[in-house]
Amino acid sequence: MALADCAVGYGAYAQGGKGGRIYTVISSEDDAVNPKPGTLRYGVTLHGRVWIVFGRNMNIVLKMPLVIGSYKTIDGRGAQVDISSGACLLIHEVQNVIIHGLNIHLCKSTDPGYVVWSDSTIQHLGKADGDGISIKSSRHIWIDHNTLSTCDDGLIDVTLGSTYVTISNNWFKHHNLVMLLGHSDHFSQDKLMRVTIAYNQFGPGCDERMP
Known about the structure:
It catalyses: Eliminative cleavage of (1->4)-alpha-D-galacturonan to give oligosaccharides with 4-deoxy-alpha-D-galact-4-enuronosyl groups at their non-reducing ends. This is Pectate lyase. The chain is an all-beta fold and about 210 residues long. It contains one helix and 22 strands. It has a single domain, classed as Pectate Lyase C-like. It has one helix spanning about 40-45, and strands spanning about 20-25, 50-55, 60, 65, 70-75, 80-85, 90, 95-100, 105, 115, 120-125, 135, 140-145, 145-150, 155-160, 165-170, 170-175, 175, 180, 195-200, 200, 205-210. The longest helix is centred in the N-terminal third of the chain and has 5 residues, at about 40-45. It is globular, with a radius of gyration of 15 Å.
């Protein structure tokens, strides 16, 4: 858990699941409404601080966006973890999240549907655009050492008042609209956004929306 003390920039105080329980993902299965113990979705909806690791290499095809709760770390070190060919990651109205060491690619837009939320309630989620990682109305977020490519929309979007975010040491490749910082020019809450972009590699095959 010492990783939590290594961030730089505005997201340096993102603690993720430091000091909490360690949860090991052993199954690549996904159920958006009733996730089984041992799956990634089950881990991100647990109450309190959780540091999530992986027991083996796996490719996870998410049926709906993975709604990540506060004080969670998803730590892919020690395994080859692919999130691909389905929905991807949603960080919404939470704080203190670390995403480290994942391969996120071929993310698809998804139709509206029901999904277990970060507080373990089941809520209706609208259409998702197919972002690799979507950060909305959240703070103290660190996205580090991931590989992201070829998603339906952006690779990482930081919007709707999100702040104190660091995006570092990631590899972005084979994508058109790489990154979005801010919901729109007219969304006043994003004028206070604080995001650090550091030590990332862009390309090959990146076209627009790069710092």
